[in-house]
Structures are given as structure tokens and as C-alpha cells.
Amino acid sequence: MAYLESAFKAKWALAASGSFNSPSTISRGRVVSIDQGVLTINKAKSEITLATPTVEGMLPLDIAIGYIQKLDAMSRKSTTYADLKNYSTFNTFYPREMKNLLYFNNETKNEVTRTCTNCGVVLPDRLLQMDHQRPKIGGQIEAVAKVMRILQLTVEGPRGPKCTQLYNAFEEADRHSSNAWIRIFTDQSFLTGAIRPTQMRVTSPPGNMDGRYTLNNPGSILYAILLHFGMGDLLNICLVNGIANIRPLCSACNGGRSNKDRKYPPV
């Protein structure tokens, strides 16, 4: 699932050859504000240098691609996110269990079940819905910020149980080797297990929420480069439908949520 990596490498090749046309304005938004930027490609050193009124710095190409590979690992398209329920990492967070369920006339059937992560009701897995924690329309930037937090690219880290577990898993994997993080998504190494409805968020000190939605310098550089390459929409689609933003809910809990369920209402 190298949605972002393949697009990035194609844009990089154009930029390195001098045939990429830069937009005059990169972006202005909640997560990072950049009005106009100058992107310099050093082909010999494989470095990307960004200079803007608010962000200045350099990322080696291999570091940028490493981040993008991790973003890809947590990505899905709008047509494929429903398949997450068959994905081993998703099932580590939200496990399926075989249970005898009671039907009409006291008949029981052994079925694959899963728990609604909001109310805790146990239902046949086929009856649970895949909910976007940040809505598909209007919540994309917040979904991107969730994943940036996992990769230590924001001022403050995550506090929810799933993103915190992924944050810790990436941190532990990186202590082993540069590519050990892949095992998070193959054999679920470094993960600690199921997320239950009873797990509550840890109360954060005042002001932390803004820090969770503010990119640090490496995050700002990476995000600006992706926007510079015209990949903002692809990034939004991939991460709003990705594992960090999807959870199983029963129809009652999912139907009762508003599409305006965002930390930051629209300006």
C-alpha cells in the first residue's frame, strides 16, 4: 500500500530534474500555516531544503521517505478501509471472538463477534460498522494530525489508547533498528493488545490540545513538502480512512454521532 511513497517518488523525480512547477502558495490551515515557500532540491546530496516565512529546515531524502513509508502503513483509500476488519493489526486493537449467541426460540449460533468500542455491546462482527473517528468530510486535517502525533511530528504526543499504543510501538521499534517498525504491521510486535470501551483518556494539562494539533519543525517541513508536491488531498484521503482513524461501532452509536464531531469547528 505505497500510495504516498509512489506519488512522492514521482514528484521527487520531476523536481530533481527541474521540471516540477511549484505553486506560489503552499497552504494555510489549522495544522501548519505556510504562505509561500521555496523548495530546493539538492540532487547530489539527496536533500530537500524548505524555506518559508514560518518553517525553515532540511530533511534528508531517506528520512522523508522513511516517514512516508510509515504514513503509508497506516493508510487506506475510501474504497478499501472496510477491509481493515480483516487486518491483523486492527484485530489486535479490536479483537474478534467466537461466541454462542442467542436467537429466536432459544436457538444458539456460534458466531464471530466484536465489541462496540463506544457502548461495549457485543454483536456479530457483520453487524458492526466501521466508524471514522474524525469525519470523512471536514475532519481530514484532524485525522492527519492524529497520525503525525504517532510519528512524533507534533509538539505534544497522543493521549488516546490506540494512538498512544502506536506511538509507543514506533518508539520501541526505532530503538531496535530503522526498519523494525514494519513488524508492528506484520506480526504485531511492540503492540500491547486490545483496546476496551472502559479505557478512558488520560486527563491532559490545559493547553495540550493545541500542542497535539501543532506540527513540530520536522513535521512542518514534511507536511509542507507534501503540500508543495500537490499531495495534500491524497494525504487526507489516505489517513482519514486509515487505521488510526477507524474503529468498530454498533449502528446506534455510529448513527448518533454528528459529522461535526471535531476538536476544532470550522472557522
Give an overview in words:
With 267 residues, the chain is α+β, with helices and mostly antiparallel strands. It has one domain. Helices cover 34% and strands 16% of the residues. The chain has nine helices and ten strands. Strands 3-4-5 form a three-stranded antiparallel sheet. The chain has a three-stranded antiparallel sheet with strand order 6-7-8, with no helix packed on it. Strands 1-2 form a two-stranded antiparallel sheet. α1 (3-16) runs antiparallel to α2. The radius of gyration is 20 Å and the shape is elongated. Residues 22-37 have low confidence and may be disordered.
Number of strands: 10
Q: What is the distance, rounded to the nearest whole angstrom, between the alpha carbons of the first and last residues?
A: 34 Å
Give the oligomer, counting copies of the same chain as homo and different chains as hetero: single chain
Rg measurement, Å:
20 Å
Main sheet record: 3 strands, antiparallel
Mean pLDDT: 81
- What is the H/E string? HEEEEEHHEEEEHHHHHEH
Helix and strand composition category: alpha+beta
How large is the count of helical segments?
Answer: 9
Briefly characterize the structure.
The protein is built from nine helices and ten strands. By secondary structure, it is of the alpha+beta class.
